[in-house]
Write a structure and sequence with these properties.
mainly alpha
């Protein structure tokens, strides 16, 4: 019998994965060199743009298929914390008319945090690949 939280985390996992995948894809399609230049203009190394876009694309796919969901989600939490504090916080929750606010970043962060804490094994590739391992064992 399926539990509501399993269905809920599956929905979060797939939507979050799709959202990050599209964000990463757009970075490459729109000219990753431009994104790298923008990163440099805000004081970050340009190669971070490539790392972020790659994380978004590969991590997004991994989340959608349920591969390493906790790790990927934890990385997305860190990514959203960085985006919020480095770029979006000054603009306020809803933005300042010149740029977006951090409301989407906060929502994505919360979604990723739920998956990082609870995991999402329903229809996950992890269940097939690591079937023999006890993933329910928790360390103190």
């Amino acid at each position: 019998m399926l539990k509501n939280y399993e269905v809920g985390t599956l929905i979060l996992r797939v939507i979050l994965g799709f959202t990050f995948f599209i964000h990463g894809l757009v970075k490459f399609q729109g000219g990753i060199e431009n994104i790298a230049g923008w990163f440099e203009s805000i004081g970050l190394p340009g190669f971070f743009a490539y790392a972020v876009a790659l994380l978004e694309m590969v991590g997004g796919i991994a989340l959608m298929i349920g591969l390493g969901s906790r790790i990927v989600s934890a990385l997305f939490v860190l990514l959203m914390l960085g985006a919020t504090f480095k770029v979006k916080l000054a603009g306020g929750f809803l933005g300042n008319g010149q740029g977006a606010g951090y409301e989407l970043d906060l929502a994505l962060l919360a979604m990723a945090l739920v998956i990082a804490i609870n995991d999402s094994k329903l229809f996950a590739l992890d269940r097939v690949l690591f079937k023999g391992q006890n993933s329910e064992t928790k360390s103190v």
